[in-house]
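Shall we go through a protein fold together, starting from nothing but its sequence? Please make up or recall a protein chain and show it to me in full. Go ahead whenever you are ready, and we will take it from there.
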Amino acid sequence: ATHTENTTGATVVPTLRRDDGDWDRFLLSAAQTWVTGTPITWPAPENPVPVALPTYPFRHRDYWPEPVAPAAAVRPGADWRYRISWKALETGPLVGAAGRRVVVLPDHGDEAWLAGVLDALRADGEIAEIRGTDQLAAKLAEAGPCDAVLSLLGTTPGEDSPGVALAWTRTVAFTKAVSEAGPDVPIWHLTRAATGDGADPVQSGLSGLLRVITLETGEPRVGSIDLPESPDAAALAWALRAAGDEDQLAVRGRRVLARRLVRDRGDTAVHEAVTFDGATLVTGGTGGIGPRLVRRLADRGATTVVLASRSGGQAPGVAGLRAELAERGVRVEAVSCDVSDRDATLALAGQLREQGVEVRSVFHAAGVVDTVPIAGSDLSEWPRVCAAKVLGARNLDEAFGADLDAFVVFSSNAGVWGSAGQSAYAAANAFLDGFVRELRARGRHALSIAWGAWGEVGMATEETASLELSRRGVRPMPPETALDVLEDALAADESFLAVADLDWERFAATFAATGPRPLIGDIPEAAAALAGPSESGDGFAERLGSLTRAEQGEHLLRLVTTQAAAVLGYAPGELVATEKAFRDLGFDSLTAVDLRNALGRATGLALPATLIFDHPNATALAGHLHRQLIPTTTHETIHTGLDQLESSLAELRCDQAERGQIARRLRHLAEHLVDEHDATTPDGDDLEAAGADELLALIQSEFGRG
């Protein structure tokens, strides 16, 4: 060999080769051995030749490979880790003006910043301003036609109630007002520093709320644009006018960034197990995942675990858990403390210090879920849902944060990609993600994990919730494996991870059922799922083509009504009403995907997830399938137009002069369509005398339906 060869546990260097076995060869081999780390006692060579040193310092550079460590094992649950990334979009110049926009402003706020945003908007077109949410629906209706509605209500400072930001409740009020006023234009929410370094946790929570609003409202398209302290007018204009299907954007300098969910590409190898010194405080530790977490903490060296909950030592299972861990030498203290109560949390911290208990780690796992669609919410659930998450995190940081080795919050993916019906829960959890970013900016060791569905324990194990999550493509995670992921994130000093076991084929289809969702577009499995089912209805179009056109329509209508009935769980042989809207029949984003997949398999067509939202009843959907499978001819297209013309003429309400003009145009068309060789063709005098109904009959006879 001409170079150093490595084998297991040894380095082999040749010293004797064909035509190369002298003293120089030996010294070269010794040098090769020396650079691998083997000590060499250099003999004085015969007749040494001195070499002058260069007049400049050596520039050290390694040209030999480092020893390769054995591949590290990867824990199960590493195809579960996701992050948020921001993708720079290619922007360009815009042509023309934006048209007229209605801008809804908060009734109080940072007026200097708001003025800067308004100046940036005016640079791109006309704006009309509305202040506050009072009588907002009426004001939106009075504002007149516009090309977009923009809300800055999410920048309202202050709280509606403890832990519930005005930015959130004013945005909910805006959403209801838009629904009532009904402007069929894009709706954009402008946020302020909701993401990135130095993000405002309240604005992060607002972003979580907006993801739910986007999922629940569907049409018209709803999006958000996060702005910096001084937004660039050109970048903002491009984001509003040219971003296409993108619905989660950020303007940074002259760049426009799009939010993406991506797989975690960090180190997912097994780390050395984390250890815990001092005491560990766990909120929500008496139920759900709490006992599993406490046992894992004990496995990793925790000698004292403090469980804080409203029930304290009276909570079910606490006595057994305390006895179990006492046998392992671990002290478990269950204390009654509502961490959403600042005074109670500070008092707990003081009591523990007096007892000599030094809390070094906090795991904030407490939470309350309440599912209420925005349209039906009176906001009464918000204080209850937000208290544990928002106030709990603030109070724990104030009481213990300065001395902590780790501050870990259990967040939810409801705030990462949204969950219909969970607006308050999404806002509270997205707040936690932003709060951890704020702590990290202050130099704290903090971690937020947005969890998917836990298996065996917790809220997702309830039968109804479990079935719903399964239908959405969210699979339950074995708790021990999920805790492995938590350990790895702590060992790697992560700041945020989204952790979920997803069936991407189902999740992507349901997530994008009401419209495009670029957020997941860069995940290969999601992109494949959104392209439609892979099954094909071999020969379906050919078999359909052998029928008459009327038979084709009947066959497709029966296919749609049969499959829709099956998806909705109707009795065998029972069909859905052909003219009744799918929404009124009970279809939602999940059953919409089921119907899309069933029709795709039957027909062989690649159908979009928005199928039943684009074609709202069985008749319309069957017609769409008909056009896709049996393209209409020019002859048939003209007949469709004539049908529409006939209907319009029947409802015509205009003066005699206008009617005369329409009649003249019809005569002109008829003259060009009459076959001069047709014996039945009327002459010019007949055409002049014909009325509108006779002309229409003539045109239809010339294009007989055959």
Remarks:
- Confidence is low (pLDDT under 50) at residues 1-8.
- The radius of gyration is 35 Å.
